[in-house]
Amino acid sequence: MSRITTTRSSKKPVIPSPATPNEARQSPGQPPRPPHVPDNLFDLTGRVAIVTGASRGLGQYFARALAKAGADLILTSRTRESLATFEKEVRSLGRRAASLELDVRDQQNIEKFGAAAENVYGHLDILVNNAGCNVRKPALEVTWDDWNLILDTNLRGSFFVAQAVARRMIPRNYGRIINIGSVTSVAGYAGLGPYGASRGGIRQLTMSLADDWGKYGITVNCLAPGWFRTAQNSVLYEDKEWVKYLVERIPLKRPGQPNDLDGAIVFLASEASRYVTGQTLLVDGGISTGAMRALRRMS
Fold first, then answer.
1. What pTM was estimated for this model as a whole?
2. Does the annotation count 195 as an active-site position?
């Protein structure tokens, strides 16, 4: 059984109304009514957001941005203990927080998680499908187990988590699902074969699910970061020659900083993106343009 811990801020939590006008009095599958548009399109007050893989890295930045926009959070990791410190940080922002254990490679665990997540606050509005992993190796050195680890985590896991959450969004005719992809969703890099395959699959999966679930008022989009420095890949950025090589290929002339993703994640989770679905939003400083010099260097 999934274990749950909740923490509450000293502020009185905002209790969302049972449904906004486009969610109320509709049967699943009935075409959604024109949405009620709040004064602040980016306000997530009253919304509940799940962020998977929130024990470290970009998952924590995504969760922090959503909390600052007003969302209450359900944080997941394979171990609840790894979320304890970050859960306290979310509480310090004035939001409610809950921690759930989730192993995206375990189908039974995913099903239990879906039910447990809905029970925390009574409804689910936003899913950030962030849990993922990578193994960097030349293609000739990739093992069968390497491939399965990456694809089972990044692609299969994302699908079945989205499925479990969507089942609970459909009765309310509302949902925002954000699958986390990568610049490797649209570009190939040596040493990242299985990872690129998983992220390319995320892009295709996003389009399919958007078509499948749009009739239920659920949008499905992919947020695809470029080259961002995080604790997990910091060793790469210790190589000054590699950083120089990378920066030369980024039109904005710097690697990404995690906070560069704040606006994109809040946009895709909010009413501001209500007519956006099936899309891949690249936040990559322009590297996906295939930037290269076609002219001699000019002073």
1. 0.86
2. yes
